[in-house]
Amino acid sequence: MATSAPDSAPTPHPRPGPPDDGPTVTTDVPARLDRLPWSRWHWMIVIGLGTVWILDGLEVTIVGNIAGRLSEPGSGLSISSSQITGLAAALYVTGACVGALFFGWLTDRFGRKKLFMVTLAVYLSATAMTALSFAPWWFFTFRFLTGFGIGGEYAAINSAIDELIPSKYRGRVDLIINGTYWLGAVGGSLLSIVALNTGIFPKDLGWRLTFALGVVLGLVILLVRRHVPESPRWQFIHGQGDEASRLVDDVERRVEAEKGTRLPRAEREITIHQRKSVGFGTIARTVLLVYPRRATLGLSLFIGQAFLYNAITFGFGTILITFFHVGTGSTGYYFAVIAAGNLLGPLVLGRLFDTVGRRVMITSTYLLSGILLFVTAWLFDRGSLSATTLTAWWCVALFFASAGASSAYLTVSEIFPMETRAMAIAFFYAVGTAAGGITGPLVFSDLTSSGKVGDTVLAFCIGAALMCAGGIVAAFLAVDAEQRSLEDIARPLSQADAPDGASAEPPSAATERG
User: Fold this and answer.
1) What tens digit of pLDDT does each residue of 82-115 get?
2) What is the pLDDT of residues 278-293, one digit of tens each?
3) Less Cβ crowding at N or C end of the chain, within 10 Å?
């Protein structure tokens, strides 16, 4: 397997802008965070921040499963199934892309904590208003705003998690947290079964209650999230070095009391020029010119997984109804099985991303899932599948695809400098998701609802081909980031010191292209 150019090439660090917004300080905060053992404090971070993906999974799955019911007379909305899986899905993803970029910029500028509170509040408000929909335009508007909040969550949460979790555990934790999306999908599938049962709820009420439950869960998460701290890494760069040290002091006391032992001394320090903010121009030059190979990697991974998930799975319920005559009230059972396979992928494979390594695992999960989806398309074209066997094949394929898709978020959150992290996540999420998640639902909703086998086979093959392409790119360009400090993987733009032989130096643009 080919390898990328070494990330430790001893080239001068490019200075995109003046670093002297504030004083120069020396800190050991990153090393102190990375050498912490796993503790109850880390569990609080995971629960407070990671559980939001459950809400995203709940949202997307519910809309896919209730599409048939919303289009029926008496639902309270005059809307078609294709509008829900096509236009409404595209608006949700569009909102997520815009929200990621908008809130990603604010996250890098004003901090992780402020923004992950604001974005959750946006989500809660928009979801509550979706439940009150009385006309298609209202439903479409608040689907966009719900996505707007969720997109902001991706940027704020992933940057905070990676900066707070020790390097030894960062890969598996990030994958598992992103994989909890599918726990929400399981819940959304099962919830839709109950909500669509007209023996329990009227046609115009059950689907509204599914959105209301999302609000209730979000409020619970909001209560837990109040206790999650600001990222010390963000604080010491943005002129809050004393606050960062006090925060880490407090965490160390908690961990030592829990473990009953003294922590070893942190050996490494870095010197940085504190600054208030980083402009869009600096971020763009850093991501695209200093790290072009990494930018290519990020785009490939995001486009592949976005086409697969945002395009094809949006229409899964329609495929079951159209080709296998599954009732609208029963599609949730099948999707729950697929969601369970997706959930197991990161849980089972996550540890390997920290031990076997990023390159091998990203490449293999993308290629395996793509190949399995090609096989599914071939069997579907032959008429060899039933609703049950199609679901079984998808369950296995997406077991690998889910781990690979989660690794896309992990990758772009750790391979770019600290000052650009949230915006880098937002950029790759927005571009990749816009390509696969906006175009995909609009195109594939027609393919999967046309009733023609060939159209649905084409939808499967497009998703499979792009997943395989992402795996091939990862084989050449993936960064061996396992168990390495974030500051070693990509040197902060504000860093002033450069120890001899340190791997913190970024590769030059020429080396990256080579």
Assistant:
1) 677 667 777 888 898 899 889 888 888 888 888 8
2) 777 888 889 889 999 9
3) N
DSSP symbols for 35-102:
TPPP-HHHHHHIIIIITHHHHHHHHHHHHHHHHHHHTSTTSSS---HHIIIIIIHHHHHHHHHHHHHH
pLDDT reading at 443 higher than 80:
no
Which residues have CB under 8 Å from 476's CB, separation 6+? 2, 3, 4
pLDDT tens profile 307-317: 877 656 666 77
Residue 123 · residue 153 · CB < 8 Å: yes
CA distances from 156 to 21, 47, 425 (A): 24, 15, 9
Structure tokens at 17: 């802008």
- How far is residue 389's CA from residue 428's CA, in Å, rounded to a whole number? 34
What SS3 state is found at 272?
Answer: strand
Q: Left (φ > 0), alpha (ψ -120 to 50) or beta: where does 6 sit?
A: beta
Instruction: Identify whether the C-beta of residue 115 lies closer than 8 Å to the C-beta of residue 152.
Output: yes
- The pLDDT tens digits of the residues spanning 485-513 come to 999 999 998 887 544 333 334 444 334 43
